[in-house]
Structure formats: structure tokens, C-alpha cells
């Protein structure tokens, strides 16, 4: 049976498309923390087994505790689930906006979740909104003016653009009859999370909903763990259209362990900053590719060596390197690819291969 949609970051599909034999790859299309899950989880792994024969709490209370302790979010304002993607579908179903603006290019599931709730979509280009302080609030209000809701990623995937959180709050306050949905899946990777994340906000506009993921920064995509913050009324509304036990008992045991991962967090951020600085310099020497380093743990490259990105993707694959072809991101500049920032050794392997291919 054909799948309803395809994810762009599947190495086996790329080998198939290029009629190449499948081989192991260094996968730069995955943008979770390259260090793998925090050591505290590995250390406790055997003990986690005992959580399997009990039902989890009805609404993931251990995950709510995590958000209270880490971000100061009141428990009635948070709802956790099997990753933030699932919650986007739940929120879309609860809100059922007639029309929504999506700031693009962006994560495909904003579009799919909203369409699944019957919403008509209007796409607004990210560069129209801007990312400085000037005019962003006005641009957001303009973008949502013909719609019931607006959704954006902050920092955005795939561009890494980070918007000033105050501009979003100001827009939400200026347009109280519109919904503002913000995806902060990658916010923990930015330079100053405390000054950037809306989760820390005290004065919460009722029309603001913020999604958060624990699967990216802590490299736990297999566990499925995320949440959204909203007004208590909105949380209740989403609970009303959701099944019970949206967080499994293993995930509920893991969430508190993330509070003991301070050293891992610091190491991640220090290494990421060092690699971004180093790679910015390295990227200047690469022919036929222009690079954009954003605020998150990934960057994009635009291929100018020919008129098809396949001319880069194919020889990279032959060298065991897989990057994310971004052509299925609506509104993307043609021939853009995205790559995760990983360890220095892996990043050097990628840039060595890019240099080889680009120099022909
Ligand atoms: C921008 C963005 N938001 C949200 C998600 C969903 O993350 P999860 O469901 O693992 O929390 C992803 C996953 O790729 C993503 O790229």
C-alpha cells in the first residue's frame, strides 16, 4: 500500500531513487543532539523496566512536573504527549480554525495537522515577516489578518531563523481574536534559551499556544516526549478531544531524569557554538555552495554547482554522507539542503565530502 505522504529524510529512499546499493551512511538529515541521550538515562535504563507493567498517569503528570521545575510553567497550563507533533494534530482538532497562515518554509506537519482539521492554509514567506525587532509584530498581525490562526517555528526548521519572542507576544496581544501557535522544538539549542523561549513567560496571552519537544535536544525521538503550553481553558479543550495516556510510563520515568543532565546540556551548547564558529570559517572555502547558519543545531546550504541538487546528493551518498534535500519544504529556495551540526569529526567528514564534490 502506498504511504499517504513521504518524509524527506530517509536514506533508503534516496539510495532507491538513485538506483544505488544501500550502504551505511553518516546521517546529517537527522537533527537531534549528536551526543545521543543523556548518560543519566543509560545509567538508569535497567531500572526503567519496572515501569512497564503499570499504566502511566492519565495526563502525563511527571512531564508536567518537569515543565514546572524547568520552566516554571503552572501545571494546569501544560499538556504532554507523544512528542510535539502529535500535540499539533490534537490542538488543530480542538481549535478547528477555518483558515490559518503558516510562516514558511517550515515543518511539514504544521500544514498536515491543520489540513486534517479542515483548515484552509495561506502561506506567508518568512522573509516577509523578518527576524529583527523592527516591524515583526506588524508583519505578524498583517499575516494573520485574513486568517483565524498563525503558526511558525522558532527557531524555524529548516532555516534556523530565530524571532524575538517579544514581537510574538506583542502580536498576540494586539490581535486577541487570532490564535498564535509557536513551535519551539529546537529552542534549547539557541544561544540564550532563557531570553528566547516563550515558556518562561509570566503574563500569558490566552490566544498563545507554544509547542515544545524533548526529543531533539535530548536525542529521544524513539521515546516520543513533548508538550504544549496554553491557557488552562485551552488545555482542557485539548484534553476533551484526546485519548487518555498520551505519555507512556517509560517517558514519564525519563522526564524527571532530564533534570540531572546539566553537564550534558552545557557540553552540548559549548560544542555546538564551537562547531558553528569553526564551520562558518570552513564553509567560506567551499565552492558552488552558499551556507546559512541559523540559531539552532542545523544549517542549510544552497547548491549553485548545477541546476539540480541531485548532482550534489548523489556523490555525497556514494561517499556515505546523507543530507536533507529540502525541496519538499513549501516556499524553500530551490536546491537547498539542510544538515545537522554534529561532532567535529563528523562535520569534517561532511565538509571534506562537500569540498570534493564541489571541486568536481
Ligand atoms: C520543527 C519541528 N517541530 C516539531 C517536530 C516534532 O518533534 P517531536 O514530535 O519528536 O517532539 C519536529 C520533528 O522533526 C520538527 O522538525
Please report the first level of CATH classification, the CATH class of the largest domain. Answer: Alpha Beta
Total strand count, please? Answer: 13
What is the CATH third-level topology name of the largest domain? Aspartate Aminotransferase, domain 2
Q: Could you estimate the helical fraction of the residues in percent?
A: 25-40%
**What percentage of the residues does DSSP assign to strands (E)?**
15-25%
What structural class do you assign from the helix and strand content? alpha/beta
What gross morphology would you assign? globular
- Give the strand order of the largest sheet, numbering strands 1, 2, ... along the chain: 2-8-7-6-5-3-4
Q: What keywords describe this structure?
A:
360 residues, alpha/beta, Aspartate Aminotransferase, domain 1, seven-stranded mixed β-sheet, globular, binds pyridoxal-5'-phosphate
Give a nutshell description of this structure.
With 360 residues, the protein is an alpha/beta fold.
3D structure, described in words:
The chain has 360 residues and is α/β, with parallel strands linked by helices. It folds into two domains: 11-31 and 263-358, Alpha-Beta Complex (Aspartate Aminotransferase, domain 1), CATH 3.90.1150.10; 47-260, Type I PLP-dependent aspartate aminotransferase-like (Major domain) (Aspartate Aminotransferase, domain 2), CATH 3.40.640.10. Helices cover 39% and strands 16% of the residues. It contains 14 helices and 13 strands. It has helices at residues 11-17, 39-48, 61-71, 84-95, 108-116, 126-129, 136-144, 165-174, 193-196, 232-240, 249-257, 262-283, 310-318, 344-358; strands at residues 26-27, 78-81, 99-104, 120-125, 149-153, 179-183, 208-213, 226-229, 289-293, 298-303, 321-322, 324-325, 336-340. The strands form three sheets. A seven-stranded mixed β-sheet has the order 2-8-7-6-5-3-4, sandwiched between helices. α3 (61-71) runs parallel beside α11 and α4 (84-95) packs across α10. The relative contact order is 0.18. The mean pLDDT is 95. The structure holds pyridoxal-5'-phosphate. Residues 83-85, 107, 153, 157, 183, 185, 213, 215, 221, 226 line the site of pyridoxal-5'-phosphate.
